[in-house]
Predict the structure.
Amino acid sequence: MKLADFGTAGPYDKSGKKKMSELVGTPYYVAPEVLASNYSEKCDIWSIGVITFLLLSGKLPFTSNSI
């Protein structure tokens, strides 16, 4: 199982003032902030939650035909 992809990784801004705007990520795991193109490293917690839910239940937490 692959849990990390560092292909789009960049330097970490410790001040927390720099927001990212590039639209990257797997649609099922991406946080809403990423879709709004205004996010920080905190959106990774969303992805961890989705992965945890998937591992525990065997289902994705959100279903949609519009991805």
Remarks:
- Residues 22-61 form one domain.
- The first helix runs from residue 32 to 35.
- The mean pLDDT is 77.
